[in-house]
Write a structure and sequence with these properties.
Receptor-associated Protein, 73% helix
Length: 421
């Protein structure tokens, strides 16, 4: 098991590690030893390095220029799934016996995204200069968070880097799959509501006024339902900009408050857990993330205290983060984790019982992995059930809004037809 000082040592080296130069891809043309024209691509920090590399290979360079990115889609951002995939590839190659430097070099040279090639090129330069891999990753916090780097540091310290990368890859893949399910649960109803509101607004702004002109020629009193719709349409036509400004200002204020206020973010996290159906999914997702993170850190040799801190940050919700930090304090004071979990009144008995069994049998990481699998399956089932439930509900909502407007507009025509009949 790695000692608790692995993380602190890597952090101490952070300030002393030299910053890696930025690596670019260059296109070159030149003559080989036989005087024949040749060309290719190389990666380096500047043109001088490229020329030096070519001369060492017996090539006389004629032109060397930085490779420009394609006009469309050539400079795509690195996303979380890219990091998960590259982690899995590193784990596979290390397990196959490929040296670390060769692994990074191969993956960096062959990746389709220029930004990823540049990122791996900088990490490779650090590792080749003798800097530990964990310290090479630490400056790139946008892509490799503290949990990722600390697990790599633990793997370096214990000499089991391939096993650690395998655990990190599994953790990242599970986390991204869970995140995708949560987004699916949130996105579908939100998109349908936005479409329903947009269609209703367009009907009120552009269609209802056409019917109003027709009704004005009737010279008869309109039904109350039709008058109500026409009144709403008139109000919206005269004050649409007020609603638009209010919506934009509301969204801007929410985003700004959420970004700048920790208290506001905590309150939002607290309230979203109380939303019917969706809140239950978020509860299970937070418990799955907690269990998966703690299992990964504990199996990698990270002490339980540090693992609980990482799990608190990875839970994705302020309510669970505060609860896990409180559990961490109790564990530091000598209390068993399953007992500490009961004190926060947040975790179900099933989870606590499995943690207790894991602590007593010395297989806490295995039990936590099983817990994570259970809750991830429950989230998957809940999202599928929610999607099946929302589809007919949204159809009824849209049908009621649009159908109500249509009925309200045609009601005077129907009544006039009855009078004529």
């Amino acid at each position: 098991m790695a000692t608790a000082t692995a993380s602190s040592k890597s952090k101490a080296k952070k300030s002393t590690a030299p910053k890696a130069p930025k690596i670019y891809t260059f296109e070159w043309k030149g003559l080989n030893r036989e005087g024949k024209k040749t060309s290719g691509e190389l990666r380096a920090a500047n043109v001088a390095e490229i020329r030096a590399q070519l001369k060492n290979q017996g090539i006389t360079p004629k032109t060397v220029k930085k490779k420009s990115a394609p006009l469309f889609g050539g400079d795509k951002k690195i996303n979380a799934m890219d990091i998960a995939m590259i982690t899995r590839q590193i784990a596979t190659m290390l397990s196959a016996g490929v040296p670390l430097v060769t692994t990074i070099e191969i993956l960096g040279r062959g990746h389709e995204k220029p930004r990823m090639r540049e990122l791996l090129g900088g990490i490779l330069a650090d590792v080749q200069s003798g800097i530990p891999l964990s310290d090479s990753l630490r400056p790139h916090r946008v892509y490799f968070d503290d949990l990722y780097v600390d697990l790599v540091a633990a793997g370096e310290h214990s000499g089991s880097l391939d096993a650690v990368f395998d655990r990190i890859a599994t953790y990242r893949e599970k986390a991204e799959a869970l995140k995708s399910k949560i987004k699916k649960a949130m996105f579908y109803p939100a998109a349908v509501v936005v479409v329903a509101v947009a269609v209703t607004t367009l009907l009120l702004l552009f269609v209802v006024p056409q019917f109003e002109d027709i009704f004005a020629s009737f010279g008869a009193e309109l039904p109350a339902f039709t008058q109500m719709i026409i009144g709403i349409s008139r109000f919206l036509q005269s004050s649409w900009y007020i609603f638009l400004v209010a919506i934009v200002a509301g969204i801007w204020s929410f985003v700004r408050a959420h970004r700048n206020s920790q208290l506001f973010r905590d309150k939002v996290d607290e309230y979203v857990l109380k939303i019917p159906i969706v809140g239950e999914i978020l509860h299970k997702a937070a418990m799955a993330r907690f269990a998966r993170t703690l299992a990964t850190t504990f199996a990698a040799g990270v002490p339980l205290i540090d693992g609980l801190e990482s799990a608190a940050g990875a839970s994705g919700n302020a309510v669970y983060r505060k609860a896990l930090l409180k559990i961490r304090q109790e564990v530091m004071a000598g209390m068993q984790m399953n007992v500490a979990m009961r004190t926060v009144n947040l975790f179900p008995d099933m989870l606590i019982q499995m943690v207790m069994i894991g602590e007593e049998s010395g297989s806490l990481d295995n039990m936590l992995n099983k817990v994570a699998n259970i809750y991830e399956m429950q989230v998957d089932d809940a999202v599928d059930g929610l999607s099946s439930l929302i589809e007919p509900i949204m159809m009824v909502v849209i049908g009621t809004l649009v159908g109500g407007l249509i009925v309200g507009m045609y009601l005077p025509i129907f009544q006039m037809g009855n009078v004529v009949g």
